[in-house]
Design brief:
Layout: E1 2-7, E2 15-20, H1 36-43, H2 59-70, E3 73-78, E4 81-89, E5 95-98, E6 101-108, E7 112-116
Parallel strand pairs: 3-7
Antiparallel strand pairs: 1-2, 3-4, 5-6, 6-7
Length: about 130
Amino acid sequence: MVLVAGRHRGVAGPYIRIVVPRRHLTNFRVRVVYSPALLRALTKPWKGYDYGPSLWETREEAELNASRWRERTIEARFDDEPWRSVNVSDPPPLDLQRNGKTYYLAHFNARRALYSSLPPLAELPPAS
């Protein structure tokens, strides 16, 4: 989840803050904030707390996180160890080597990929 600040679509009012799943965002980049109003919106304390979200300390730290976020990944789980997961590229590879064993893509959606240790079924010949 990522905290996003901006103006509501179609309204020239004050800045708003919303929390959005990162997978819905693209094109992460680092930019300087010149607007004091936008900076206040980004660092405003949470309701009921006396602190707000923190910003990255250096530009290098922000660039590192932006480059990491640009690499689209999804969670991958395995049939023999469903409690363990790793991140794979999006779209996920058709097969994956892990601990000397080959896993085959069984299913994937926007959130995760499921891998099976069983190879996919061979295509059946056409019915005559």
